[in-house]
């Protein structure tokens, strides 16, 4: 019978080597731990210096990574901002346009307030307005020029009453309803208004007659050397009894042989509110109407007699 072998298997050798290696590593770890304890007692600041040196090595790499992250983030934000820029610009344009509209509306309201205050200031004058109302509309496509206001007989408005704005004369009431009235504008071809030059150094009196095209023809009473020049202001003279004297009527634009062509100071198309004033001299107006009726009656009688004689 053969004797048993004394060699160990390969598995038991590997186990021994592993155990031995573990002992060696444990011993090295223990030695390193003892050395670290000794160093911490001898040089307490040494671990901090080691960490600082390690950070010096690591920080540049971390800084580069941070710059890359920041750069990529900034690039993405730039792209997103570029994509949003169109919508933001459109929104800003809408806001600016809306703000411009609001400013325009505020300017119009302020302008209307100034005009109303100017008309209300007329109440403190010698002749208090009968009514202050809105200019509803005006004709501008024919030779006849009429205007319409939102006040009538219920407000005390009567035919013949002058109508004006804060700038000057617009016309006079031609027909009056209960709550509205029709105005004969100064620019109508049937409108005639006695006027005088505002410059007192030049005694110039004339008649302002509507030209039918939105302007007024000034005809001088005293023909001769025409003293007018562009820019001269004509005001109401008070003759005829309808209008108070001194109200602005027209500005001379073009000089003619017998007077001038002028534009009205108070444009009905630009008038929002108007004041209806009482007739300046009702007695004079009534007397002129009676005289006109008598003249017409006499003319009718003469015509009748001539017809009878012819028969």
* Radius of gyration using CA atoms only: 52 Å
Shape: rod-shaped
**CATH topology descriptor of the largest domain:** Thrombin, subunit H
The CATH homology group name of the largest domain = Rod shape-determining protein MreC, domain 1
Strand content: 15-25%
What is the total number of structural domains?
2
Provide the CATH top-level class of the largest domain: Mainly Beta
N-to-C order of helices and strands: HHEEEEEEEEEEEEH
Residue share in helices?
Answer: 40-55%
Would you kindly provide a written description of the structure presented here, covering whatever features stand out?
The chain has 3 helices and 12 strands. With 311 residues, the protein is of the alpha+beta class. It folds into 2 domains: 23-124, no CATH class; 131-289, Rod shape-determining protein MreC, domain 1 (Thrombin, subunit H, Beta Barrel), CATH 2.40.10.340.
Main attributes?
2 domains; rod-shaped; 3 helices; alpha+beta; 311 residues; Thrombin, subunit H; disordered C terminus; 12 strands; single chain
């Amino acid at each position: 019978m053969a004797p048993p072998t004394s060699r160990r298997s390969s598995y038991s050798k590997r186990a021994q080597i592993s155990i031995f290696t573990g002992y060696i590593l444990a011993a090295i770890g223990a030695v390193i731990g003892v050395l670290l304890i000794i160093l911490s007692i001898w040089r307490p600041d040494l671990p901090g210096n080691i960490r600082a040196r390690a950070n010096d090595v690591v920080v540049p790499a971390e800084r580069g990574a941070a710059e890359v992250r920041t750069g990529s983030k900034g690039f993405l934000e730039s792209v997103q901002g570029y994509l949003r820029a169109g919508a933001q610009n459109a929104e800003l344009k809408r806001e600016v346009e809306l703000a411009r509209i609001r400013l325009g509306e505020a300017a119009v309201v302020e302008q209307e307030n100034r005009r109303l205050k100017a008309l209300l200031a007329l109440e403190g004058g010698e002749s208090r307005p009968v009514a202050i109302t809105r200019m509803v509309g005006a004709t501008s496509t024919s030779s006849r020029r009429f205007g319409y206001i939102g006040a009538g007989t219920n407000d005390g408005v009567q035919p013949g009453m002058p109508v004006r704005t804060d700038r000057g004369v617009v016309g006079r009431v031609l027909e009056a309803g209960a709550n509205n009235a029709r105005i004969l504008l100064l620019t109508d071809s049937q409108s005639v208004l006695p006027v005088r030059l505002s410059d007192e150094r030049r005694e110039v009196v004339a008649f302002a007659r509507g030209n039918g095209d939105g302007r007024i023809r000034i005809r001088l009473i005293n023909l001769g050397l025409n003293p007018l020049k562009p820019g001269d202001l004509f005001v109401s003279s008070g003759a005829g009894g309808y209008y108070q004297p001194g109200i602005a009527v027209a500005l001379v634009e073009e000089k003619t042989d017998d007077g001038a062509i002028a534009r009205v100071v108070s444009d009905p198309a630009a008038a929002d509110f108007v004041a209806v004033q009482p007739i300046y001299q009702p007695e004079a107006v009534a007397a002129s109407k009676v005289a006109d009726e008598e003249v017409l009656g006499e003319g009718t009688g003469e015509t009748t007699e001539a017809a009878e004689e012819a028969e």
